[in-house]
Amino acid sequence: MVRRFRGNMNGEQYLGNTSTTEVHDLDNEDTAGNGCQIDEIIAAGNDKPFTSLTQAHSAGYDNCAKCLGDSQR
Ligand SMILES: [Zn+2]
After folding, report:
1. DSSP conformation letters of 25-51
2. What letters, b where the CB count within 10 A reaches 16 and e where it falls short, cover 24-50?
3. Average pLDDT, the chain
4. Higher confidence at residue 70 or residue 6?
5. How far apart are CA 34 and CA 11, in angstroms?
6. How far is the CA of 68 from the centre of ligand 1 (A)?
7. Ligand 1 centroid to 9 CA: how many Å?
8. For the chain, N or C: smaller number of CB within 10 Å?
9. Mind listing the domains of the chain with CATH numbers?
């Protein structure tokens, strides 16, 4: 669980997946094989940085069930 400085990320705590419109908390990342798959999201170019969860929610993103919980979908 580390913040990223690759792709579109520059150390922000939250990463949105533009493909699934789910947001992940990099300080609480699930690194299991079936977890958040942050590196795969960045490799696919689907990473969108957010500095706050409120900002992500305002943009229409839903919580990842693994690192944030309380998914609304
Ligand atoms: Zn996640």
Report:
1. EGGG---STTS--HHHHHHTT-EEEES
2. bbbeebbeeeeebbbeebbeeebbbbb
3. 96
4. 6
5. 23
6. 6
7. 15
8. C
9. 1-73 (3.40.10)
